[in-house]
């Protein structure tokens, strides 16, 4: 039985780590497609296993890809484009197989098609654009020139993209004729309307899982991620650690310099955290001046290294007039999952207690 997604040289970026991770996702998508098309009874547990694997892929691959872009020194506008693309994929992978929603073969089929479309477009359009910009910079272009030149180019990926999508639907038709027995013209109209509605719904759901001020995932997203990683830890026995951070004296910034300055401080802290953590770590804003860093597959020792780097790179902030409004002090609580913890909430509580212990010591430290 042919695979749903046929990998070929068209998709190569010739960056080994990126290509290997792309092929890993292709394997997961084909695994999901086999579940849908096998004709066997629908198994939510198997779907959850594939969903968890896709989430783990996204955490590692997107972090690596964003780190590669920063290391290469590409234009910040391109990095922002990657951030947005990755956010959309992370949302789809999170809601895939959500126990709170009703699952059906038809729904999973739509999600499967979405994942294939996303990956084809992401590789051929976004990632190939990254490679072309890197090559342009090696030839002497500035990051801005490379980005602007890329925007002016015709999308040479259109033909292979259309060919790949056409091949996808031919395979689906061959493997499950009954799903495509409706009139083609009518189906296309219905599918177009469905895609428009799903896109609108995705945008609304993204707004509910990300913080408008900093662009970081919010508390709701943090709890979803922590729950999934907790289950992965139970299944595979891998370590899991948290950093809970609080900006010391934040209230004084709001009281003395106004809420606009306080908001600017939160945005700066968020960006500094992004720059300080490892590619596999996930930064969230829980609310107010409180931030959470989830450290998958990391013990306390590894999380402590990250916490110390955050403290080392935290600097005072001055207003536009040159007046220091914040001294750069952060209190960080560190917690690692252990056998006494029954739920992920216990891990979060341990990090919270450690953070308040750091505050009781005067702040500006990790405990």
UniProtKB/TrEMBL annotation:
<dbReference type="InterPro" id="IPR000160">
    <property type="entry name" value="GGDEF_dom"/>
</dbReference>
<dbReference type="GO" id="GO:0005886">
    <property type="term" value="C:plasma membrane"/>
</dbReference>
<dbReference type="InterPro" id="IPR043128">
    <property type="entry name" value="Rev_trsase/Diguanyl_cyclase"/>
</dbReference>
<dbReference type="InterPro" id="IPR029787">
    <property type="entry name" value="Nucleotide_cyclase"/>
</dbReference>
<keyword id="KW-0479">Metal-binding</keyword>
<dbReference type="GO" id="GO:0043709">
    <property type="term" value="P:cell adhesion involved in single-species biofilm formation"/>
</dbReference>
<dbReference type="Pfam" id="PF00990">
    <property type="entry name" value="GGDEF"/>
</dbReference>
<comment type="similarity">
    <text>Belongs to the hemerythrin family.</text>
</comment>
<dbReference type="InterPro" id="IPR035938">
    <property type="entry name" value="Hemerythrin-like_sf"/>
</dbReference>
<dbReference type="GO" id="GO:0052621">
    <property type="term" value="F:diguanylate cyclase activity"/>
</dbReference>
<dbReference type="GO" id="GO:0046872">
    <property type="term" value="F:metal ion binding"/>
</dbReference>
<protein>
    <submittedName>
        <fullName>GGDEF domain-containing protein</fullName>
    </submittedName>
</protein>
<keyword id="KW-0408">Iron</keyword>
<dbReference type="InterPro" id="IPR050469">
    <property type="entry name" value="Diguanylate_Cyclase"/>
</dbReference>
<feature type="domain" description="GGDEF">
    <location>
        <begin position="238"/>
        <end position="367"/>
    </location>
</feature>
<dbReference type="InterPro" id="IPR012827">
    <property type="entry name" value="Hemerythrin_metal-bd"/>
</dbReference>
<dbReference type="GO" id="GO:1902201">
    <property type="term" value="P:negative regulation of bacterial-type flagellum-dependent cell motility"/>
</dbReference>
